[in-house]
Amino acid sequence: MSQENKLAETFPWDYKFGDENFQKEPWILNKGKQNVTIEKSLDNKGFFYVQKNEERRLSLNHLQIKSTYNQLIQFGYKLQK
Q1: Is the pTM of this model over 0.85?
Q2: Which one of 10, 12, 24, 47 is at 20 to 30 Å from 18 when CA atoms are compared?
Q3: Domain chopping of the chain, boundaries
């Protein structure tokens, strides 16, 4: 299977309330004892905060967060339900 087929096209923040796959913020990805939290920025529309464990929280734009999400999935992280 090519790498292109593994990339997500729909992201957790793309779903609206009432959609089958809708999940409330924050979105948490887990891999063993590691976790990464993603949430929308309330201050800057179109930006997201990402934070690994208790490390510093980073602000990413829409394209950066999509790329980061796909990389985390490729590294074995799973979206917590």
Answers
A1: no
A2: 47
A3: 21-79
